């Protein structure tokens, strides 16, 4: 499984933010201090939690 796109709406400091991940291998998120990099990773983490719960419910 790989991520093609991440869209964040009203989460942390972001009103609306969209990422298109081009590579299926490694993507780098870089930015200045306090620019929201950790919020992006937290949003991805929440997505994975939801996916895992969905998978477990189907079993």
Distance between the termini: 19 Å
Low-confidence stretches: none
- Written as H for each helix and E for each strand, in order along the chain, the element string is EEH
Major sheet characteristics: 2 strands, antiparallel
Beta-strand segment tally: 2
The helix tally amounts to 1
Helix content: 25-40%
Supply the helix-strand structural class: alpha+beta
Radius of gyration: 13 Å
* Percentage beta strand: 15-25%
Characterise the protein shown here.
With 59 residues, this protein is of the alpha+beta class. The protein contains one helix and two strands. The longest helix has 22 residues, at 37-58. The chain is globular, with a radius of gyration of 13 Å. The two termini are 19 Å apart.
Short account of what is shown:
This protein has 59 residues and is an alpha+beta fold. Helix content is 37%, strand content 24%.
């Amino acid at each position: 499984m790989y991520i093609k796109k991440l869209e964040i709406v009203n989460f942390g400091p972001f009103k609306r933010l969209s990422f298109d991940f081009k590579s299926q291998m490694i993507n780098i998120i870089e930015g200045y201090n306090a620019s929201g990099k950790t919020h992006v990773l937290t949003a991805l983490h929440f997505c994975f939690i939801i996916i895992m719960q969905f998978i477990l419910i189907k079993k």
